[in-house]
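The records we work with from here on pair a chain with its fold. Taken together, the tokens spell out the fold as the letters spell out the chain. To see the layout at work, look at the sequence and tokens printed below.
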Amino acid sequence: GIPDRAQLSELAQCPSAGQEMADEGTTQEAEPTIPPEPARMQCNICLDDEGEVVQRGCCCRGDAGAAHVACLVEVAVHSRQNTQNAWATCGTCKQMYTGVVMTSLAEAWLARVGERDESDREQFTARSTLATALFHGGHYAQAAELQKALLASASRIFPPEHPKTMVVTNNLAVSYRNLGRHAEAVELVERVLSVYKRVYGPEHPRTMTASGNLCATLHCQGKVAEAARLQAEVAETHARVYGKEHPEALTGQNNLGVMLFELGRYDEAEALQREILAVRKRVGGPEHPRTLTLQSSLGFTLRSQGRYEEAETLVAAAVAAMQRVLGSKHPKTLLAEARLGNVMLLRGRGSDAVDVLTPAVEAATEALGSRHVDTLIAGGFLGEALCSVGRVDEGLARLRQTHRDQTEVIGAEHSNTLATASSLSEALIKSGEATEGIDLLVATHSKQAQALGDQHFHTRLTANRLCRLLQEALIF
């Protein structure tokens, strides 16, 4: 078996540099050493280490980023900065807070101003900031509900095309996208993009942000080629106007890397992801949420190149850090765990894969729902892993349900649906339903070759299954 989720980091660890081995033949036991207690973090505001001192989740490192939440609240209350900056942005590195600090400060701010009238500017901004914090915390449904309420308030307070109305509409579209409500997300973001292009022009930051959101939503709908073409244009404009290391430019390049991966252009995806990861690590640090998300994506790109050992090392390290930084129930952590389980399966460790994927699917179902795109990805991986350890009936049932749900949610021709169909066909053959399985396998390979190309990872995986089936038929 594998370590439990809290110990996953061991998968990515190596012996520490400089660790000496005992001389050959030495029999004398070394004196036992008691490891020193880890140094307590000190709040860099009150300089006290008592109570819960947390990392702010910005780009400040070590003690420079450590503080009591209560101290940060006091700093925000007495700040002379723009109000939203005081509550949402670190005064030292000028980057947004993340994690528990982001949510705690937003809640504290709204607690101070929540009783004011909805037309009060600070109250409106505090509600919007809390919605953003909930979203980044992975609470997409709660964020969407608050954003819908904000949009209703904005429609009563502001003109239809007021900047605040458009910002809330755009944010609601992003929440809908992450909830799998893609058609609604496209409708909202296209409305925002139309206004931004007319009012601000095509190269304004808000216009490009909305353009990037539209690309991401099209990608989620399975329109990967169209999304990649548009995203490349957005990324080029961002780099030209604001520089390649601008936060929005990095986000756009990261999204493009994911799309290149989906298109099977793995070498291009890897090169772009490595370039962005180096910047993310330098600017935000190795455990910033965006750094970890990109590291997980890069690992999965390596998996699709057949570099399974490298992939597992990267993804396992990302999972261990995400569990500390984002929490074990965060959707991004759960997706990374699903990727880790799949890589383990491809390395022939089906039991380990089942141990990782089972709780990941349960947690994703609770957090996102059973028919969310990411839950279905994890469910397909789990079904395949169950079959690999001889639990064919369970695996087959899981794969049938996943395939039905994916067909209804994202369509029969989506690459994820076809990947599950390939796994399902093999499970059918194993369970004795050879005719149905073979027919499905042949049809799936034809669709993948046409839609994804012969060299796409999923197409090659299905082709390998067909080859094995042919070899077994010739042998027997």
DSSP finds 20 helices and two strands in the chain. The longest helix spans residues 224-242. The beta strands are 54-55, 66-67. The longest strand covers residues 54-55.
